[in-house]
Structures are given as C-alpha cells and as structure tokens.
Amino acid sequence: MAGYDDRDGVIWMDGELTDWRDAKVHILSHAMHYASSVFEGERAYNGKIFKSREHSERLIASALALDMPMEWSVDDIEAAKAEALKASGLEDAYVRAVVWRGSGEDMGVASARNPVHMAVAVWPWGAYYGDAKMQGAKLDIAEWKRPSPETIPVHAKAAGLYMICTISKHKAEAKGCSDALFMDYRGYVAEATGANVFFVKDGEVHTPKPDCFLNGITRQTVIQMLKDRQIPVHERHILPEEMSGFEQCWLTGTAAEVTPVGEIGPYKFEVGALTRDIAEAYEQLVRA
C-alpha cells in the first residue's frame, strides 16, 4: 500500500473533510516538539464503531490530563467520527481520532495560547499481529519499564507515552518477535507496547492491575466477558517469574482485538481452549 501520507480519501480536520493528501500541520506545531498530543484507536465493524462513545469520553479525559481543553463535546466527536467513517466508504475499518496543540504564539514548553486541533482518519487495517492471531504471538521482554504515575499522566492515551513502545517494538521485530512486554517501574508485569496482557492458570485468569498504565477498553470488555462466564479474574501485581507457571496467555486491544500469545522471552504458552473461546466470543460481540 501507499504511505499513509499518499492515499485517496478524506480526513476530518477541525470540522471539515479535507483531501487526504492535504491533511497537514505546520512544522512548528507544539505537538511535534513537545508531544502535546492524545489519540484514540478504534475499530468499526459492519459500519459501527465498537464502544465508540467510551473512546470519545477517554479522548476528552486524555486531553484534559495534558491540559488541552477541547471545544468538542462527546457528541461532537461522535458526529465527526460518523462523518469520517461514512466518507471513507468502509464498513470494517480502523478509526484514529487525534487531538494536538498546534502552532501559535507559544514555541517553548508552555503552549496555552496555541490552538487545540482535532482530526479523524479512517482506513482499512487487518489483523494487527498477522498470523499470530491464530498461531500465537512471540513477544520479547522490553528493557524499558512503564513509569510511575507520579512522573507522567499514565492513564492518558498520550502520544509521548508511546516513545518507549516504538523503541521496544523495533528491537522485538529485529529479533523475529511480534511485540514486547513491559515490566513496570516496580518490576511487575505491565503490558505490551499497545495491548494489555492476560494469563490463565488452573481455569482462572490473571491480569496486571492497571495502576501505572492504560486500562484498555478492550481489556475491560474482556474482563466482563470472563465474569459473565463465571470465570474468576484476578487483577493483581504479577511477578515476571510467575509467567513460568501460567498455561495460556493473550493480548487485548482495539488493534490487537484478542490475540493469543505463544512465547514471552523464555516462557511458553499453549493456545488453549479458553483463549480461543474468548477470541471467538469477542469477534461475535463486536459484530453483534
């Protein structure tokens, strides 16, 4: 496919549909220099964005966490996404809403006088991890750690938080892996570069407590699915060495959906019945 800057179609920007190739920002936009940007990744199935309103609510919360008050309400964001999706002509698609500080009177760390912008782009995107969706992904263990909530707004979906994700995923792919798993600042298991992680042992599910990383919307959805099935779910701090005793593992995320994991560093997992059941049930849910 062509690069993401060279495609047919339109992108919603600040209330107008703009030709895809003309959807540009100035080089002195504050976001480019100081990471004053937040975003949402969403998927549309059969023409409907799954958990759309929750994503819009989180977009506003993330922007406020970075001191970027928006002029758009949840209803405004919903209307923008609907307009962009309709203009794309796609039924099954990935939807990216992004909010950022643009160029203006400020060009230092402070940017209160610079305008806040919003855009929505829609494009086709298949399985995030490719064949791993069936065979089980292989993960590296990242050398970076998820930071303390005292150092950065960890519960915002902020662009700056993904810098170590890019570095870690590049290293993982160079090793033949699909992704990398982070530990947190205390040494507990945290998450992958763009997905939450779940483990299975003796028919019960264990997942890291999201006290220093994003509590994903797909994560919350899957936890409720498990509880509806009367499957015990333990949200807790997990030590890395505990992975040797887990039988199954999967990742969750809007892009990842529910993806089985076969390996994390030296630890091996089976793509078992519960993993496949949850993956299939999630697929049915988003298309219901």
TrEMBL record:
One of its GO terms (molecular function) is branched-chain-amino-acid transaminase activity. The lineage of its organism: Bacteria, Pseudomonadati, Pseudomonadota, Alphaproteobacteria, Rhodobacterales. Its cofactor is pyridoxal 5'-phosphate. This is Branched-chain-amino-acid aminotransferase. It is an enzyme of class 2 (transferase). Its EC number is 2.6.1.42. Pfam families: Aminotran_4. PANTHER family: AMINO-ACID AMINOTRANSFERASE, AMINODEOXYCHORISMATE LYASE. InterPro entries: Aminotrans_IV, Aminotrans_IV_CS, Aminotransferase-like, B_amino_transI, BCAT-like_C, BCAT-like_N, Class-IV_PLP-Dep_Aminotrnsfr. Keywords: Amino-acid biosynthesis, Aminotransferase, Branched-chain amino acid biosynthesis, Pyridoxal phosphate, Transferase. Acts on leucine, isoleucine and valine. PROSITE patterns: AA_TRANSFER_CLASS_4. Belongs to the class-IV pyridoxal-phosphate-dependent aminotransferase family. It catalyses: L-leucine + 2-oxoglutarate = 4-methyl-2-oxopentanoate + L-glutamate; L-isoleucine + 2-oxoglutarate = (S)-3-methyl-2-oxopentanoate + L-glutamate; L-valine + 2-oxoglutarate = 3-methyl-2-oxobutanoate + L-glutamate. Pathway: Amino-acid biosynthesis; L-isoleucine biosynthesis; L-isoleucine from 2-oxobutanoate: step 4/4; Amino-acid biosynthesis; L-leucine biosynthesis; L-leucine from 3-methyl-2-oxobutanoate: step 4/4; Amino-acid biosynthesis; L-valine biosynthesis; L-valine from pyruvate: step 4/4.
